[in-house]
Amino acid sequence: MRPTAAASPLSLRPSRAARTAAGGLAAVLAAAGLAACSPQRPDPRPAAEAFAAGLQAGDLSAAPMAGDASAAEEQLNAAVAGLGDAARTVVVEDVAADAGSADPATATARLSTTWDLDGKPEATDGDWTYQTTATLEYDAGASAWRVRYSPAAAVAGLQAGEGLRLETVAGARGDILGAGGTELVTERPVVRVGLDKARVQAADAADSARELAKLLDIDADAYAAKVDAAGAKAFVEAIVLRDDSSRTVTNRQIEAITGGRAIGTTLPLAPTRTFARPVLGTVGEATAEIVEKSGGAVKAGERVGLSGLQATYQERLAGTPGMRVWTVPAPAGETGGDTGKDGAGQDGTGQSGGTVAEGSTTAEPRLLFERAAVDGLAVTTTLEQDLQEVAEKVVSDADSPSAVVAVRPSDGAVLAAANGPASNAYNTAMVARYAPGSTFKVVSALAMLRSGYTPSSRVECPQTTVLDGRTFKNFTGYPADSLGTITLSEAIAQSCNTVFINASRKVEMSAVADAAASLGLAAEPATGSAAFLGSVPSDSTGTEHAANMIGQGVVEASPLGMATVAASVAKGSTVSPRLVADPAPEAAPAPQVPLTAEEAAQLKQLMSGTVDHGTVTDLQDVPGPAVQAKTGTAEYGDGSEELRHTWVIAIQGDLAVAVFVETGFSGAETGGPLMKEFLTKAQAVGTGG
């Protein structure tokens, strides 16, 4: 009721008590009205957590988005596609309501994102971590919080219309060094020769490809097909040529062909194409298998070690690649800014809008993350370049797989490990497994010495002998005047099989296995590279045991293994061969029965007879210190034709050598001349014994 004009103002003023009561009632009524208009809202954190999970998975379908979730998801995945399959982790750091925000209320979620760019499970400096914020809006109609998508909420610093690009930056690859720090593999100039399809009409590309293939002497059909399969503007590499005096095809010839290009660059290469290739290995583009096996550490297109030491020491040689994350314009039609707002910010119904606003494309790329590349470290080997070249020349004409291995007895350094061309890039020298033939008699002789024999012991050497119903015989052409009763020394010099066959009746196979280990043959390799030395079982019996005594049966050795046997004899103690000096490999386990200096001296005496008057007297003419040696021939195959592995092992001063040819006539006739050539040339280059 309004007061009348006659009423006194004082009469209308309530007492203090009345005012207090009225104020309390008003407060209660106001609170009740506020509660009626704004019921208590749910916690916004679950919405933020769902958004974080969606960002991490690249799937926003389950996230409560303020707008078209599929449009936001498309924009997100287009933006980060350039990071490939790098894993990411997104966590919510905190969520807080925005101070003073009016209806509809807003909140801000602070997110932390980590991208595992280098594919390593542990935390590294290849992890890109950043913080972003996302705005949440309260949808009163649905009584729910919704997230407003923006590029900057997904990736720190990302703007509308941008995507990401991951760039890998390789550090300088480490060299492979030889003895004395000689650069065996280092960056050398090359020319990448190929067809640039951007410089040739599509209809003429095949003709140009064939013309270039003819010039380079490569398969024209295969190269033409490769060119046809490449993109319209691709450079299709045909071959890489060393840019040195060995190059016969000139840039002028290449570029006279329409689309032909010669691009100068460098690659880690050895002095020549064949130099220790199976040992040192090669570098090339990572295969799909290597990429898969790396678990993400190696990316498609990266140059990595494919074989040999280059593959074994890939991580050390390559160092740590650098990485950069750049912004790039997003693909056409996939640009966009915040989602969930139209021009007015709301669609007028209280529901979030569903349009994706057009964003502006940033022209200049921006760097968002960088990890500097770390150059690779060198791997130092024990190879002597001059001696390796000599060894390769010695077997360069062999028409079956072959090898020459030289070891320095005093320290076990592998000075040369050469493979003939017929080995077809297989490392016959260090990993092949063959029956060692009569070179194994040095091992059997040690077992016999330990069983009571001496070099002057009288033994029987019949032309044939029978054990457990099997007939064993000496090789065709065995000297008749060395049959009958002879010394053990003569049995080694002339390589009498039947002496060792008969000795199997007295010498246990376990003793032979121990002797092999004492001479370094059965030890676990500690070369620092892929290697096999030998396999000598301790449980063979009967005819198998007898055949083992002459290097047949089931015993196996590599050329490196037999060079190690010779080296152990020369040193007077067990030698563990090593190819890599830095990083130093772990030491090989010591044999259970050590080789003594006295035993080694007796073996050396036995091997002297082979050169003095035995199977390889031609080695008497080698200049320098006296040579001790042992020849070997091992039959193989199904018996339909005579096939023989041929061997020679030799000692000259501080040099132990094994020469092997997979298929030859005999150790003396096939391997003897090769050994003589090698030892003679080794003296000439100053690395002989």
From TrEMBL:
It is found in: Membrane. It holds the Pfam family Transpeptidase. It catalyses: a beta-lactam + H2O = a substituted beta-amino acid. Residues 334-353 have a biased composition (Gly residues). The keyword Membrane applies. GO terms for molecular function: beta-lactamase activity; penicillin binding; peptidoglycan L,D-transpeptidase activity. Residues 403-665 form the Penicillin-binding protein transpeptidase domain. Belongs to the transpeptidase family. Belongs to the class-D beta-lactamase family. This is Beta-lactamase.
